[in-house]
Design brief:
The protein is α/β, with parallel strands linked by helices. It has 3 domains: 126 residues, no CATH class; 219 residues, 3-Layer(aba) Sandwich (Rossmann fold), CATH 3.40.50.410; 135 residues, no CATH class. It contains 21 helices and 13 strands. The protein has a 6-stranded mixed β-sheet with strand order 5-4-3-6-7-12, sandwiched between helices. α15 runs antiparallel to α16. The two termini are 43 Å apart. The N terminus is likely disordered.
Length: 562
């Protein structure tokens, strides 16, 4: 079940909120003073009984008019403070290229000679590059001794950000560094894509590799001949740095097989030679504003026209307050004019102007409300079965700054419905560690569910690891909620490892009921049909296997695993 969220409310000029509170008090006081002064002036001419027969001492609607003016000032002050909430979305046309970004995730990228580390600096530049090129389709590749595709070519900022957040040396499989493999895989990925836009491969690394330079140059040359523009971007320093290794709560320095402390150094010569072989561009590590330089190097490439999903976070809502204030003001003027006209008093205001202004404001109000409508609630979209739209909504909330555990839990649950089990399990596990209360318990349950579904995939060589993860999650869950029936059943399935034959055990019953009882239960809002689709998806199985292979550490030839 998705936990509801309230749209954040912000103000452009919050200090004006003091005026919104103080000015109505001032208006009320001024109106009271004016009434008392009028009575004092009239009392100089005659007794109060005579005055009541000769003139109107007080306005019969004095109090109502004061209330209206107070609300006018209050609403105007709130409008001037610039209230914003909600999310406006829309598709705009833009032109972009196809770009694969290969990120070095080997141990050497953890060196702190670039603060806070080489890898973190890479992530910062990737985010800045993505912000400059919203119309580009981007694919992420992580490489060390081997390379892995994290995301295909996509314009989904949420998916890119999710993998960037979780990228570290533990994600890639084989330790070491192989730039040649990353270039070849990036080239193959780009050439397999459809579209008329030019293709570019951006390689971000420290250049320290333990493979022949000829292999790297050959892969770069092949990429250039196939029309892929190669940009190599360096990180680190030539003086080098040690590599910190976190061992529980202790941080130690990386050592080689001989027990010597490893010093990793930035190698610009290899990166410059690779860029030259491909006819591309080399950006050294000491260059400032690397993302802008990368964008400049790719500016001459041919682009394709695409629809880009644009959004405006925190939509201005001042008209929601200003229009009612103007309407109240027009209504008050109309009442005042009507009273003067009925009493025969002269008036300098045309009789028709206030009503005209009032009705014009009423006509403009629906248009204003329609233009400021809020985005659909992702929780409602998920309940309706529109999983993709709900996932896009939660990713938009996270991209807009809402990184609370509640929103990340909702995204993780929605990822299960979208068949992205690896990403869902990782995100829900993060929520479990950071959250508390009901959110933590639900995240633990659904993380176990995702692992259980992955383990039950047919012909999965890594099923045991998935089942072990599911068992651990449900043991912890049942430790706090031992009476939860769904958790007990899913834990039993994880203990069995595979479902029993139809019709066997469980107290009898027909085979159809037995088949239904063998399905794992989920608290994330997925129905039986969605769960069945999760179990039978071949695409999901392939992604799961690849994700687990990435987490298997193997030492490269020669023993150099950084």
């Amino acid at each position: 079940m998705n936990l509801g969220t309230l749209p954040p409310l912000i103000f452009d000029m919050p200090w004006l909120l003091l005026a919104a509170v103080g000015l109505p008090v001032v208006v009320w006081w001024m109106r009271s003073v004016r009434t008392r002064q009028r009575r004092v002036r009239l009392a100089r001419y005659a007794e109060s009984s005579a005055l009541r027969r000769l003139v109107m001492v007080t306005d019969p609607d004095e109090r109502g008019r004061t209330v209206r003016l107070v609300f006018v000032v209050l609403l105007t002050g709130l409008a001037l403070s610039g209230p914003r909430w909600g999310l406006a979305r829309g598709a705009v046309s833009a032109r972009g290229i196809d770009m694969a970004i290969a990120i070095d995730a080997s141990l050497s990228m953890m060196a702190p000679d670039e603060r806070p580390s080489r890898l973190e600096r890479v992530k910062q530049e990737v985010r800045r590059l993505r912000a400059m090129s919203q119309a580009d389709r981007v694919a992420l590749i992580a490489f060390a001794g081997r390379s892995y595709i994290l995301t295909p070519l996509t314009s989904d900022d949420g998916a890119i950000e999710l993998f960037l957040d979780n990228l570290d040396p533990s994600v890639v499989g084989q330790a070491g560094s192989s730039i040649a493999r990353a270039i070849r895989q990036g080239t193959e990925l780009l050439l397999a894509s459809d579209g008329s836009a030019d293709r570019a491969l951006v390689l971000m690394t420290d250049g320290e590799v333990f493979e022949p330079a000829e292999d790297v140059n050959a892969a770069a040359t092949e990429a250039g001949l196939k029309g892929v523009s190669l940009v190599t971007v360096g990180f680190g320093t030539t003086q080098g740095s040690t590599i910190p290794i976190q061992d529980g709560s202790i941080t130690r320095e990386k050592r080689d097989d001989d027990g010597q402390i490893v010093i990793t150094r930035y190698a610009p010569e290899l990166l410059e030679a690779a860029a030259k072989a491909a006819g591309g561009t080399f950006i050294p590590a000491d260059a400032s504003d690397k993302a802008t330089r990368v964008r400049g190097a790719l500016r001459s490439l041919r682009t394709a026209k695409r629809k880009v999903d644009s959004r405006e976070d925190h939509v201005p809502r001042y008209l929601w307050l200003l229009l009612p204030a103007l309407a109240l003001l027009a209504y008050d003027s109309w009442l005042l004019t009507r009273r003067r006209s009925s009493s025969g008093a002269a008036s300098s205001l045309p009789l028709t102007m206030p009503p005209v202004a009032f009705f014009l404001l009423l006509a403009a109000l629906p248009v204003t409300l329609m233009s400021c409508k809020q985005a659909p609630d992702p929780a409602a979209l998920f309940a309706e079965g529109n999983v993709q739209a709900a996932m896009a909504g939660y990713r938009a909330q996270i991209a807009g700054g809402d990184t609370t555990v509640r929103t990340r839990y909702n995204l993780g649950t929605t990822l299960i419905g979208a068949d992205s089990l690896v990403a869902a399990a990782e995100l829900l596990d993060m929520v479990r560690r950071e959250g508390d209360g009901e959110t933590r318990m639900r995240a633990r349950f659904n993380a176990g569910y995702a692992s259980l579904v992955m383990g039950r995939a047919p012909q999965n060589p890594e099923a045991e690891a998935a089942f072990a993860s599911a068992r651990a999650a449900y043991r912890a869950f049942l430790g706090e909620r031992p009476a939860e029936a769904d958790a007990k059943w899913n834990y039993e399935l994880a203990l069995r490892k595979m479902p029993p034959p139809q019709g066997g055990g469980g107290g009898g019953g027909d085979s159809q009921n037995d088949k239904q009882d063998e399905q794992p239960q989920n608290q994330g809002g997925l129905d039986q049909k969605q769960a069945e689709a999760l179990l039978n998806s071949a695409a999901r199985e392939e992604r799961d296997v690849q994700g687990r292979k990435q987490r298997q550490g193997r030492k490269p030839p020669g023993g150099k695993d950084w």
